[in-house]
Amino acid sequence: MDTLKIATFNVNGIQTRLAALLAWLEREAPDIVCLQELKTPDARFPAAALEKAGYGAIWQGQSAWNGVAILARDSQPLEVRRGLPGNASDPHSRYLEAAVDGLLVASLYLPNGNPQPGPKFDYKLAWFEHLIRHAAELMESGHPVVLAGDFNVVPSDFDITTPAPGKRTPCSSRSPASASSASCGRAGWTRYASVSPTGASIPSGTTSASTGNATPGCASTTCCSAPAWRTTWKTPGWIAGCAARSTPATTRRPG
User: Fold this and answer.
1) Where are the stretches annotated Disordered (predicted)?
2) Best exposed site among 58, 136, 177, 190 by fewest CB in 10 Å?
3) 85 falls within a domain
4) pLDDT (tens place) for every residue of the chain, 255 residues total
């Protein structure tokens, strides 16, 4: 059984960050990459540059905001769905699902929810409920599933980038957003691995989830049904899990 190297990366604008993304792909050679916040329309997604680097891709773009993609090294992801079931009226590009290397992989970008209370926060909780229902079905399907991306929900206050006494954000446990965490538990996600890259090898204290244009109070979380997983302190976050490949691993490097 081969080991797959899977990364989730909020690229925050793939056009402006393309050179950095390509350099990172060549250096780290992940097998599967889930990208968020592409901030580009479908027609401008840099598929040719990624293909030259050795990665097949599917994407769901959106001008200026949102957008998700799935990359696969030396193979082409097979799209399963875009958008969550029961949420067809959502105009935002936040969920993309594909079959890759024997796994069912989803790249997702949950709404931030600011400000709260208000319609944006209500939209966040409603979106989360659609995700929970679909994820529960996926997890019960018996297929190996990875849901990776920017959940805009933190598992604990340890993961908040700018903690402050009494501060309420739509991502923290002090916020009514904790209701979404309770719903997650009701859906049975506690039986699966929830991996927070920011806290994997940092024993205590608080830390920033990322540098640059980080949104205060938000961090990236990944849920995975793989029985064997680990994380290391890197940006973007990593999951290394054992999974059977549908095709033999190759050694071709980008270039």
Assistant:
1) 163-184
2) 190
3) yes
4) 478 899 999 999 999 999 999 999 999 999 999 999 999 999 999 999 999 999 999 999 998 889 999 999 999 999 999 989 988 888 899 999 999 988 999 999 998 888 778 888 888 888 988 998 998 899 888 889 999 998 887 666 655 555 555 555 555 444 444 444 444 433 334 444 444 444 444 444 433 333 333 333 333 333 333 333 333 323 333 333 323 333 333 322 233
10 is in an annotated binding site: yes
| Domain extent for 189 | 3-242
Q: Which of 11, 18, 126 minimizes the C-alpha distance to 68?
A: 11
Neighbours of 78 (CB within 10 A): 12
* Residue 203: C-alpha distances to residues 10, 39, 94, 163, 193 (Å): 25, 35, 32, 17, 19
Say whether 114 counts as a known binding-site residue.
Answer: no
Counting the structural domains of the chain, the total is: 1
CATH number for the domain that contains residue 234 = 3.60.10.10
